[in-house]
Amino acid sequence: MHGRSMRRVGGLLFTIISGVSFTALVGAGSASAQPASGPRFDHPTVTVDGYEFRVAGRVSLPGWLRIDGVPVGGLSGVDYDAGTGDWRAISDDSSDQGPARFYHLNLGLSGGNPAAGIVTLLRADGTPYPASATAGQDTVRPEGVRFDPTTGDLFWANAGERGIPEDGSAPTLVDPTVRQSGTDGHFVAQLVPSERMRASTANTGIRAGQGLSGLTFSANAALVISTAAGPLLQDGPLPTATEGAFTRITSQSRTFGFRVVGQFAYPLDALPSSPGDPAGLAGNEVAEILAVADQRYLVLERGFADGVGNSVRIYEVDLTAATNVGGVNSLVGATFTPASKRLLVDLGDLGLGGVANFQGITWGPALPSGERTLVLVSDNDFDQHTPTELLTLAVRVS
Q: Does a structural domain hold residue 1?
């Protein structure tokens, strides 16, 4: 991840690593904020075959932070452009707290305070996406975001929607899609969604709250790879305390106009923990995916349980021997080879003193030590009392 802007962005990483506070996410008309470094803990190094992880730094942004009156929160994806040194984080706001948007972060410190701003995501007609209550088929819930090195545009995941109103009115069914936008937010294109994931039928497709969650390009940028958070309705139940589940990884090829060329079953873990109250909620899902090399990816699994907290794990996933299940309507009772996976690091083992709701992950610039950096961002669910966390891991890959 070397780039001509490494020195400029390296200032940010040095600031995070050294624990020095920095001014960030400050927009015109808003109060500046000095995000405080997280508390210091003893951070062990976690080593598995081929990888070594250590905490390089941790910074919190206050939950009340705003830019131009719009809250900075709900961050569900983050990406780094090695060519320019720009960082972008996308909000999962369905235009309810502010317009559907991403945050364009210029975090180099060579020229004074870092600059930041909001970029509104626009529809094909050039207008912002409406609030979810009135949006209907225009409902968006942005999730992952990635810079496309081929076009210079941004690709982002729209989770899709399966909303069943309590009053018995017609449900809101929105297919999950990958969308392409300019860095100024203008609409460029929408990729054709996977037929298996469409929300337009009652018994197949994405579950409510379990739509498209992760997005990355393959290592050679020829493929767009996306993930569903949890199993499709036809693919079996959600994970339980004793049983995992299968969700799907989808591959779309640039060569064929981003047509879907493959799907692969990804084995989700069983619930990492049960809720403190038997009536409480718990779950485990895929939050994000990130390319490592040809056919190899990192997958961020996020578990949660009421009264217990979050569990966030990073897995290495290999698709080489996995069966293409794109033509399989239901995985229940089907014969297939799922993607292989192995646990690389459980964030609970890193001495963080509590694991935030991390949902975004990206490779950052290299450190002088030769280590790569992984930068994670958390989703605070727009709770003013819950900070947004930036966690930097230094990774040595052998």
A: no
